[in-house]
Design a protein that fits this description.
It contains nine helices and ten strands. It is an alpha/beta fold. The strands form two sheets. The chain has a five-stranded parallel β-sheet, with helices on both faces.
Length: 259
């Protein structure tokens, strides 16, 4: 059920709009001016985790109605939300942090609204993906975002092996407790690559670890176990290619004293 808002009138002509609204990845003050305006005016805010979104709204003094969009009764909820759009009510879709759809369940509502012919608009905002790449200092010209770290060590090894010859900067999300496993795998497969581990970006508790897998294994011994990390791995560089090529050439050039 929806809690009715008081003293707010939004003029509508025709169907309502679905706004895809980016929210802060850490500091609540990173909400854009446009996002702030939209969240104040829409009839309903559709949230991944309502308690997380409520904290953001409370920080900014916003009293909009929030409804959940979780795995339970999702098809039924989509029908209810499409009906709201049909009635001319604007809706904002938000994730717990960053841009909706980037590793959260928002895409099904967006696809349903588009298929039904309702206007869908995006209000860009912060993203852990781009923020971590910027912090890393590695090339952002070509980025490979691979979602979350594979579940088993065997799959992690297979995953990293596939990245061995790629030049893209790799970005993955990983629970901080699994970062040692990732770094040990990188140490075996890509020992010379530079790696950045970013935790709690834009918060006062922000932590940034940078270096080779070997050096990072020493740095992260006190890593918080109950948080998420964004891991950025440098892609294959020309220097790495030249070094390997020179190494191969040294192996095939005979020594001067060879018979």
């Amino acid at each position: 059920m929806y809690r009715e808002r008081q003293n707010v009138a939004i003029p509508t002509n025709g169907p309502g709009k679905l706004f895809i609204v980016g929210t802060p990845i850490g500091s609540p003050d990173d909400l854009t001016i446009r996002a702030l305006t939209i969240l104040k005016l829409v009839r309903i805010i559709v949230a991944e985790t309502p308690l997380v979104t409520q904290a953001l709204l409370d920080h900014h003094g916003i009293g909009s109605t929030i409804t959940s969009y979780g795995p339970v009764n999702r098809d039924e909820k989509i029908g209810v939300l499409l009906h709201q759009l049909q009635q001319g009510h604007d809706i904002a879709l938000v994730s717990d942090s960053g841009m909706p759809v980037v590793y959260d369940p928002g895409r099904m509502l967006i696809a349903a609204a588009q298929q039904a012919g309702y206007p869908v608009m995006v209000v860009p905002g912060p993203s852990a993906l781009t923020a971590a790449v910027a912090l890393s200092g590695y090339s952002g010209d070509r980025i490979a975002f691979e979602g979350r770290l594979p579940r088993t060590s065997r799959l992690v090894k297979k995953f990293l092996e596939s990245f061995r010859h790629k030049h893209e900067t790799l970005v993955i999300f990983a629970p901080s407790r699994r970062c040692p496993l990732l770094l040990r795998s990188l140490l075996r497969i890509l020992p010379g690559r530079q790696v950045t581990i970013a935790i709690d970006m834009t918060k006062t508790s922000e932590r940034l670890y940078q270096g080779t897998p070997a050096s990072l294994l020493k740095q992260i011994r006190s890593l918080p176990k109950s948080t998420e990390a964004t891991v950025v791995v440098e892609g294959k560089t020309r220097n790495e290619f030249v070094a390997k090529r020179k190494g191969s050439e040294r192996q095939i050039i005979p020594r001067p004293d060879a018979g």
